[in-house]
Amino acid sequence: MSPRPTFGRWFAPLYLGTHLGAWGGAAVHALTDARLAWLPYVGVLKWALYLVGFTLLALVWVALVAAYDVLLLKLRVRTLPTGLRAWGLATSAPLVGGVVLRFWPTGVAAAFWPWLAVTLVPTLALAFAARLLLGERP
Which terminus of the chain has a lower count of CB atoms within 10 Å, N or C? Predict the structure, then answer.
């Protein structure tokens, strides 16, 4: 049993780990995106733009997962994840989501939002399931 969860032990991995995973997904996108590769320094620009986009997604992700953690705590199903378990749960889900987003076919640009829902909803569901199954019981 880990020490009693505190806000800092729970939120630091949730916030920083989620952003690290999202930034890993941004790096995968920037390295595998062949558009405009012939221009000098365009790789750095693409990486910076992907970092901005994935940071915004990570902020939404943190809010959703934090609400889910608090719900599980309130229902007395699981305690707040801390330690290595929290870092693993926080980092892996957005990284996997970023890789899935990169290699899932997008179709036309008009279908972006349905495509985003089809790729992010299952990834978020997997993050929720992992927290429920791998979390520590009270």
Answer: N
Residue 68's φ and ψ, nearest 5 degrees, are: -65, -40
CB-CB neighbours of 51 under 10 Å:
19
In a domain, 37, yes or no: yes
pLDDT, tens only, 8-25: 888 999 999 999 999 988
Question: Could you list the residue range(s) of the whole structural domain that residue 64 is in?
Answer: 7-134
Q: Hey, how many other C-beta atoms are within 10 angstroms of the C-beta on 78?
A: 19
Total number of domains in the chain: 1
pTM of the model: 0.79
| Cβ-Cβ contacts under 8 Å for 127 (sequence gap 6 or more) | 61, 65, 89, 93
